[in-house]
Structure formats: C-alpha cells, structure tokens
Amino acid sequence: MDNSSGVGVIDKAAAVLDALEAGPTTLAQLVAATGLSRPTVHRLAQALVHHRLVGKDVHGRFVLGSRLVELASAAGEDRLIAAAGPLLIQLRDATGESSQVFRRQGDSRVCVASAERPVGLRDTIPVGTQLSMRAGSAAQVLLAWEDHERLLDGLQNARFTPTILAGVRRRGWAQSLGEREPGVASVSAPVRGPSGRVIAAVSISGPIERLTRQPGRLHGDLVCQIATQISEALRQNGE
C-alpha cells in the first residue's frame, strides 16, 4: 500500500515517528526502519526534537516527544484508554483482582488506566504510576516482541530471562511472582495497534495467596481475551 501523501518531507517525518512507536531507537535503527539516508534521518530527527515531537532518553536514543502527549490530550480522547476502561472493569469483576493497562515510556512503563479491586487486600497502582521495565509481567509483555537489539538491551539487569520471554511469545501471556514487589503476582497480555505492533499490556495483579503460584494458568486466557478485545476496538476506531 502506498502511504505517500505527495509531500516528501512530511512523509519522511511521519516515517521517523512511525519507527519510534516501537520505543527508544538509535539513529542506526531509524535509518534501517525508514529506509532513508543517514543524513536525512539525522536532519529530520533533530528538527523533530526542536519541536518536541521527538525527544531523547538518558542513553541518547530517540523517543516520541512530550509534545505528542500534549497534542493527544488536546484532541480530547485517548482511544486506548477509552477502549480499555469498560473492559478493565469487566476483567476486574471476572477475576476479583485489580486490573491495569501499561504503556512503555522510555525505560519505564506507565499505568494509563486501571480498575481497582474495591475491597480487601489489593495491589494498588494509580494511573500515572511509573514502574520498572526490568521486572513484572507487563514489562515482560512490552519487551517480548521487541527486535533483537532492543530485547538484549531490555534484558540487562532484568529479573526475567530470554527463556521466560520466549515462553511469553509462545503462550501469548506473561506471569510474575514477586518480581516487582514481594508477595505480589500478576498476569499480562499484549494489546496490539492496527499495524500489529504491541503498544500496551493489560494486567491483573494481587497477592500470591489469591492468585496462586500459577496465576497464568488461572487467568491467562481471560487476560488474553480482554487484550484482544481492546486491540480489536482500536482497529475498528482506526488508531
């Protein structure tokens, strides 16, 4: 399919932004992803940094910029959050555990939507909470389908292994037991954008005593179903 608008510089800038959807990206990775020359990619990326449409992380890699968040907010609706809201409540009610949606943001993952368990012992993760990409089932999901270089980078100092991530890709869901916080278990599954790329993770979390030491066996299928429904809603809405 031809994605050209006929305005070359806009098409090239859009290609750079599309490549950054996958997460922190080096200049070399941008060149490979866009098929553009290195000088062109460098010039475009620096111009986009100037306008805050692109930023840089602590390692100097390019990331989507803060201006995009402001523009998305101004547009009045975040389709992921809108699609996830009622389904997170459904997931919480079906499992009896708190449910969340996480997006990757640089070297962290951010809770962008949640439905808390109303009573009793629960794992409370308010919207806006930033957590590590080195531990937890949502981090596993957000990393598992990355390209080889990002995968290796993400595994440095992580509490999970390449074998665990291979299992996540095979099953379609991830589980963790006390990885992020002692005594807390979780199960997560990937939310995919219209292109098929993993853009978020749906999770449930709670005490190991309730979720057991095999939380994925207990709830993996349902978490995957909810993640698929959110992905389908995003596709229908044309995100």
Architecture overview:
47% of the residues lie in helices and 20% in strands. By secondary structure, the chain is of the alpha+beta class. The chain has 2 domains: 8-73, Arc Repressor Mutant, subunit A (Orthogonal Bundle); 79-236, GAF domain (Beta-Lactamase), CATH 3.30.450.40. The chain has a 6-stranded antiparallel beta sheet. A two-stranded antiparallel ribbon has the order 1-2. Helix 1 packs across helix 3 and helix 5 runs antiparallel to helix 10. The chain starts with 7 loop residues before the first helix and ends with a helix. The model has no long low-confidence stretch (mean pLDDT 90).
Structural class: alpha+beta
Major beta sheet, specifics?
6 strands, antiparallel
Mean pLDDT: 90
CATH topology descriptor of the largest domain: Beta-Lactamase
In N-to-C order, the SSE pattern is: HHHEEHHEEEHHHEEEHH
| CATH architecture term of the largest domain | 2-Layer Sandwich
Protein name: IclR family transcriptional regulator NdgR
InterPro entries: GAF-like_dom_sf (IPR029016), HTH_MetabolicPath_Reg (IPR050707), Tscrpt_reg_IclR_C (IPR014757), Tscrpt_reg_IclR_N (IPR005471), WH-like_DNA-bd_sf (IPR036388), WH_DNA-bd_sf (IPR036390)
Domain HTH iclR-type: 7-66
Keywords: DNA-binding, Transcription, Transcription regulation
